[in-house]
Amino acid sequence: MILAVRDSATMLRRQLRHMSRSLSMLLMLLAVPIVFLLLFVFVLGGTLGDGLGGGTGGRAAYVAYVTPGILLITIAGAVQGTAIAVALDMTEGIIARFRTMAIARVSVLTGHVLGSLLHVLASLAVVLGVAVLIGFRPGATAVGWLAAVGLLTATTVALVWLAVGMGLAARTVAGASNLATPLTLLPLFGSGFVPADSMPAGLRWFAEHQPFTPIMEALRGLLLGTPVGTATAVVAVGWCVVIALVGYGWAKWLYNRDRTR
Amino acid sequence: MTNTSTGPAIAVTGLRRSYGAQVVLDGIDLHVPEGTVFSLLGPNGAGKTTVVQILSTLIRADSGEARVGGHDVLRDPDRVRAAIGVTGQFSAVDDFLTGEENLLLMGDLNHLCRAEGRRRAAVLLERFGLGEAARKAGAVYSGGMRRRLDLAMGLMGDPRVVFLDEPTTGLDPRSRRDMWQIVRDLVADGVTVFLTTQYLEEADQLSDRIALLDRGGIVAEGTPAELKRLVPGGHVELRFADVPALTEAAVLLGVSPDPADESLVLRVPGDGGVRALKALLDRLDAAAIEVDGLAVHTPDLDDVFFAVTAAEEVTSR
Ligand SMILES: Nc1ncnc2c1ncn2[C@@H]1O[C@H](COP(=O)(O)OP(=O)(O)O)[C@@H](O)[C@H]1O
Ligand SMILES: [Mg+2]
């Protein structure tokens, strides 16, 4: 157990070195949600904000509405990077070397997960900073902030493990990127950018039942300081737990397969 | 040459492994005494890498038993892993890290303390001529440097058994000789080396014992000298200008020319020593037979290899 922690820490250091040497890719991943944020708020935000109904409407209302969705896009985009990094790593001979060493096997994956988690949290801070700069005014209490950070972390851990599984399953970089693409689109097909009840029936059903919607709803409530329904909170956390467990189990199984390449 | 007081570093019995319907290893036995160099020699696709992968716990055999460093590869893989250093056929260097960082990573994964990791990394960088490139990324290393770094990474844990899968394939002659020297130094330190190669010369130069792997089985095994004894001895090749000269010489020396050979060459058995050679030429000279050209052929592992695999071919037909 102690060795597993030590090996994971070693692998995390390896991962941070890798990340520091592919900063341009990380910056590109970060640029996407920021461009989305600016586009939606400045180009579409006036009209979309008026359409939200209630309150003052306009851009100010829209930036408050859209920020949680943008945060999820940030996470999804970053974990797409994780899937790509894992797939790329598995093509490297050094992974075979790790398998011939007396180390905790899963530590290669934990290294990726911990590295990605730090990357995502830093990205979220930047994106949130930009949102505040263009008029997002969170009304969260201290407890609300804590809960929001907790929920974002839980979502990230869940999606990162899923992305690690995708990276292992894909075997090629392009394949990993494709597998993870739906994650970056899910916030759009949920209540991230417009309320689900403004959508046509079929899409609306999907939006109401997919995992990102309750997570974004709960996040919105926590950040703005508005009430969060118990059902929404439970479903949001439930999804995180389910995705994390499935992703972890899948990734571990894929990694421990008798690889005969 | 084998020391009976120490157990074998590697002991393998009845190892089998198939990929689908293709039988790659069809019951292999190996025995490598501690502190010796053992070469597994075979052409491309013979199954050398498969053997290394099984012995280094990367893949499982379908059946058979394998012990490395006294531990069973299936029941005790982590003990085996702690005892071995592996340099696979394909590079296992982290390209994003520098040479030094690669070694320090191995130090951490071998659970060395920081100071010891740094010390060993410095020693290995120096010993393998990588001192100047220590701070450069693995991606920019030349083939020979990569191989050396790869090997150095395998040595950070101070292994007792080292696996080298085709350590010199694709290297220039200079780098190949460097690698040979490294292997010799390792053995001088008491390490057991298991290497695979396609080069007979390499096996001949380095090994205490050699096994020939062909079509899933060990077709010959022994010291280089023992293997060379498996084939007929050396000979001198005499080339003549015309058929009369060839026939005359054949009668004089009591050897019959190869009827299938139309190249006017006569093969005379002999070890090709200077004295024997001079005697031979003197006899021809005395009989006034003109020799056009001459080549001395001492038996090498090539002969063993072709003799053994050709015999296989006949019996398998
Ligand atoms: N993962 C694999 N799947 C299918 N066949 C394989 C695999 N690995 C090796 N083989 C086959 O097993 C045989 C032996 O391969 P290998 O051990 O790599 O030979 P060598 O190292 O002597 O060149 C080859 O015919 C190869 O095609
Ligand atoms: Mg091979």
Automatic annotation (TrEMBL), chain B:
It is found in: Cell membrane. GO terms for cellular component: plasma membrane. One of its GO terms (biological process) is response to antibiotic. One of its GO terms (molecular function) is ATP hydrolysis activity. InterPro entries: AAA+_ATPase (IPR003593), ABC_transporter-like_ATP-bd (IPR003439), ABC_transporter-like_CS (IPR017871), ABC_transporter_ATP-binding (IPR050763), DrrA (IPR005894), P-loop_NTPase (IPR027417). It is a peripheral membrane protein. Residues 10-240 form the ABC transporter domain. SMART domains: AAA. Its main location: membrane. Signal peptide: none annotated. SUPFAM superfamilies: P-loop containing nucleoside triphosphate hydrolases. Keywords: Antibiotic resistance, ATP-binding, Cell membrane, Membrane, Nucleotide-binding, Translocase, Transport. Belongs to the ABC transporter superfamily. Drug exporter-1 (DrugE1) (TC 3.A.1.105) family. PANTHER family: ABC TRANSPORTER ATP-BINDING PROTEIN (PTHR42711), DOXORUBICIN RESISTANCE ATP-BINDING PROTEIN DRRA (PTHR42711:SF19). This is ATP-binding cassette domain-containing protein.
